[in-house]
Amino acid sequence: MSESTPRILVTGATGYIGGSVLSEILQSPAVEAGSVSALVRRPDQAEVLLAHGVTPVLFKHLDDLETMEKVARDFDVVINCANGFHASSAVALITGLSKRKEKTGKQVHFIHTSGTSNLGDYRISGKYKENRIFTDKDHIFAYEKYREDMETYPQRTTDIAVVETGLATSVRTYIIMSPTIYGFGSGWFNTISIQIPALIRTAIEKGHAEVVAAGNAKWNSVHIADLALLYEILLRGVLEGRKLAYGSQGIYFSETGEHSWLDLAEGVAKAGFELGVLEAPAPVSITLQQSAQQWGKGSLQYGELGWASSSRTRAVMSREIGWKPTKGRRDFEENFSEEFQLIFNRSKKQ
């Protein structure tokens, strides 16, 4: 690796998204060998990364903001796949990148991970209803600020901080906002997602799948392999100096399909029933309060936005920059039995 080679830092490398993104970009023709580093907390994780050609950078935790900023000063691109609800660490990383730019005079870039619950409505509680189908060519940042003025939501708060800090420091920021993610990841640590596995664990525990109210609200989905590819496409565009939307215009969607919450619950119920684990091939309706307790960490906001809201998106701009996802409805439907079997097998070992 020469001194002129852009240096890339990945955060969240031991996670589902970050691990998959890391393994994907290592195969990119635009990424030179030895140019990728990743933040990790433990020496054993560092050893795994070293074995795959990634330079590990040890840190304590996301609240170690001074370290986060100092580390980012040594990189030209940061791909932030850590906690999308943690605004201060994202700001620290962007601030560090700005110091890099001051030193080298070269443009620096921050690719951030977010989710479409930021756009979700409250159709169960009735606090706010949204019937729009958003595209990533709409003014999504303005909409996020509009919604944030009504009620704060940490992941959305972080998006706004990312864009505004980037604009204030001349760091180019890009946000990849994802819906329900499914499929097995390609990283070397955690390889399963959040939403569908959580539904499966609850179903195993209670003997039946569950859905909030009627489950009519709709979301989108994306396979983790397709999502990781979008990160690689965006990174490649950055490294090749292509003209890309950034800042307040640089929010990219990643959908490849659409489902209702009832579809998810029925997929879990059918898979569990066919495996002989669940009592019936149909889900049971629960209240928003129950959703908050078992999936939303006790928060009615999380329980509704993340498990019962309507949030419909179309990834127009992502496709325009060259993203060509390959997974479809069949992959989505087959995933239920695959994930159910894995999680059930793990539950028997505990």
What attributes does this structure have?
13 helices, three-stranded mixed beta sheet, 350 residues, alpha/beta, Rossmann fold, 14 strands, seven-stranded parallel beta sheet
Q: What's the arrangement of secondary structure elements?
A:
Elements lengths: L7 E4 L4 H10 L10 E5 L2 H9 L3 E4 L6 H8 L4 E4 L6 H18 L4 E7 L17 E3 L4 H11 L3 H16 L2 E7 L1 E3 L12 H12 L3 E3 L5 E6 H16 L11 E3 L3 E4 H14 L9 E3 L1 H7 L5 H6 L6 E3 L1 H5 L8 H21 L1
Total strands: the figure is 14
| Percentage of residues in helical conformation | 40-55%
**Helix count?**
13
Strand order of the largest sheet: 3-2-1-4-5-7-11
CATH class of one domain: Alpha Beta
Low-confidence stretches: none
CATH superfamily descriptor of one domain: NAD(P)-binding Rossmann-like Domain
Query: At CATH's second level, what is the architecture of one domain?
Result: 3-Layer(aba) Sandwich
Radius of gyration: 20 Å
Pfam families: Epimerase
GO molecular function, one term: aldehyde dehydrogenase (NAD+) activity
Organism: Exophiala spinifera
Protein name: NAD-dependent epimerase/dehydratase domain-containing protein
